[in-house]
Specification:
- The protein has about 475 residues and is of the alpha/beta class.
- It has helices at about 15-20, 35, 55-70, 80-85, 95-110, 125-130, 140-155, 165-175, 185-210, 235-255, 260-270, 280-285, 315-325, 365-380, 405-425, 470-480; strands spanning about 10-15, 75-80, 115-120, 160-165, 215-220, 225-230, 290-295, 300-305, 345-350, 380-385, 425-435, 450-455, 465-470.
- The protein has an 8-stranded parallel beta barrel with strand order 1-2-3-4-5-7-10-11, surrounded by 5 helices. The protein has a 3-stranded mixed sheet with strand order 6-8-9.
- Helix 3 runs parallel beside helix 5 (about 95-110), helix 7 (about 140-155) packs parallel to helix 9 (about 185-210) and helix 8 (about 165-175) runs antiparallel to helix 9.
- The radius of gyration is 21 Å and the shape is globular.
- It starts with 9 loop residues before the first strand and ends in a 5-residue tail after the last helix.
- It binds 6-O-phosphono-beta-D-galactopyranose (BGP).
- 6-O-phosphono-beta-D-galactopyranose binds next to loops.
Length: about 475
């Protein structure tokens, strides 16, 4: 049983444009870097892409009706920049704006609060071609231009806005691991692009203050607490390094307008600090978000690095387990050996945690730890903007999905959120990932997260029929009772 959640708690669900919409060339849309990347052989599972996705572009009314029937109070979605500005800047495509206006109106009709994400990883290809996208400072102005178009158009219809989704994830996978576009392996470029994105974030928030004075804006960060392997002070120190490097390096800038000193020094030694121009730090310090979006899936466990502290026999296996399951380390690259954090910590599996079918650790208490740590360090209201279970859902003979495992997973996380609230953490909402099944960036359509099953697979679009899962009815009841059931 769950205890009370705050009144007006935003019970929601989330999605992202590229993963759900389809209609990739429809009504004047330009290409994004994901449209290009997904077509490079071998980059995504069986070459799956978002050309059709789950066809939300044409079926949004049906999807919103399902949300309304469920009683959903908030829906987080992202806008595809290349629908609004097909060339990245300049000419505005009104049909693109109209699509989002229709979606927002449809949500409002049923009193579902729209939570609009400006950037969920899909910079227009035109800007990548023109100046290498986030490697150029021109992207700061172009992102601001794009954001201003949306602020002006939707300022009276959308209250909650998210600037960047998981900046830590898309910069690392895109500029370091060659796992996302722009498909680069260069740590220095990762830090340069990250700094430019921080500036774009700050500038857009300045525009927001001018154009949407009553709105609320913040980033969505992919946060996971970092644990020490055991109480050996060397490992505890490594966990501190991990926490600062993997989390606070990114987040401190949003809230405090500066990079953590310890990590800065470490990067300086490695020669990979970003270029700071005059006025940069002032711009970063001139804004502060209204809330923090938190995407929580799992944390990480680390030990002091292997070179200085060779692994004991029993630790070797944990190390192997980690390398076998971590999605980003499946094919270790040469460059990994010289990656900046290696002198500071080494990732290992956590022997106390079970894993999903996809090798992600299941750690509901980590949710409470995350919220507590973030409340202490940043002291802002928080919205869980993503949390969910990726699984292989199979239709039964009666064409139903019995996803009790998803219900268990979500319930355990909600219990910990509720405890965090009792602890004194300010949580304003929870958006489960995801409402309908949708494209998993690298894993195709078989890794499913939704409350609503979509009849399609990796090779075949099939009927695209929407089928509410068992978890849909469970969440409906959670919302109805404000979390009590
Ligand atoms: C987050 C992304 C989402 C979503 C989710 C699940 O990092 O913000 O867009 O995809 O992870 O990830 P995956 O689809 O890789 O399982």
């Amino acid at each position: 049983k769950l205890d009370d959640f705050p009144e007006n708690f935003l019970w929601g669900a989330a999605s992202a444009a590229y993963q759900i919409e389809g209609g990739w060339k429809e009504d004047g849309k330009g290409s994004s870097i994901w449209d290009t990347f997904s077509k490079i052989p071998g980059k995504t599972y069986k070459g799956t892409n978002g050309n059709v996705a789950v066809d939300h572009y044409h079926r949004y009314k049906e999807d919103v009706k399902l949300m309304a029937d469920m009683g959903l109070r908030a829906y987080r979605f992202s806008v595809a920049w290349s629908r609004i500005l097909p060339n990245g800047s300049g000419e505005i495509n009104d049909k693109g704006l109209q699509f989002y206006e229709n979606l927002i109106d449809e949500l409002r009709k049923y009193n579902i609060e729209p939570v609009l994400t400006l950037y969920h990883w899909d910079i227009p290809q035109a800007l990548q071609d023109a100046y290498q996208g986030w490697e150029s400072r021109q992207a700061i102005d172009d992102f601001n231009e794009y954001a201003r178009v949306l602020f002006k158009r939707f300022k009276n219809k959308v209250k909650y806005w998210v600037t960047f989704n998981e900046q830590n994830v898309f910069t690392a996978l895109g500029y370091r691991w060659e796992a996302h576009p722009p498909n680069i392996a260069n740590v220095k470029k990762m830090f340069e692009a990250n700094h430019i994105i921080n500036l774009a974030n700050a500038k857009a928030i300045q525009s927001f203050r001018e154009l949407v004075p009553n709105g609320r804006i913040g980033p969505s960060f992919g946060y996971g607490p970092i644990y020490p392997f055991d109480s050996n002070p060397n490992h505890v120190l490594a966990a501190l390094n991990g926490e600062e490097f993997q989390n606070h390096w990114w987040m401190d800038v949003y809230i405090h307008g500066k990079y953590p000193k310890v990590i800065w020094k470490q990067l300086e030694r490695l020669g990979v600090t970003p270029t700071i121009e005059s006025g940069d730090m002032e711009l970063l310090q001139s804004v502060k978000p209204d809330f923090l979006g938190v995407n929580y899936y799992h944390g990480g466990t680390v030990r002091a690095n292997k070179i200085e502290f060779p692994l004991k026999d029993e630790e070797q296996q944990l190390d192997k387990d980690f390398e076998a399951t971590d999605p980003y380390l499946m094919e270790p690259k040469e460059e990994q050996a010289q990656s900046p954090e290696v002198p500071m910590f080494t990732n290992v599996s956590n022997p106390y945690l079970e894993k999903t079918d996809w090798g992600w650790e299941i750690d509901p208490i980590g949710m409470r730890i995350a919220l507590r740590r973030l409340q202490s360090r940043y002291d802002l209201p928080m919205m869980i903007t993503e949390n969910g279970l990726g699984a292989f859902d199979e239709l039964t003979e009666n064409r139903e999905i019995e996803d009790q495992y998803r219900i268990d997973y979500l319930r355990e996380h909600l219990v910990e959120i509720q405890k965090a609230i009792t602890d004194g953490v300010d949580v304003i909402g929870y958006c489960a990932w995801s409402f309908t099944d949708l494209l998993s960036w690298l894993n195709g359509y078989r890794k499913r997260y939704g409350f609503v099953y979509i009849d399609r697979d990796d090779e075949n679009e099939k009927s695209l029929e929407r089928i509410p899962k068992k978890s849909y009815y469970w969440y409906k009841n959670i919302i109805k009772t404000n979390g009590k059931s």
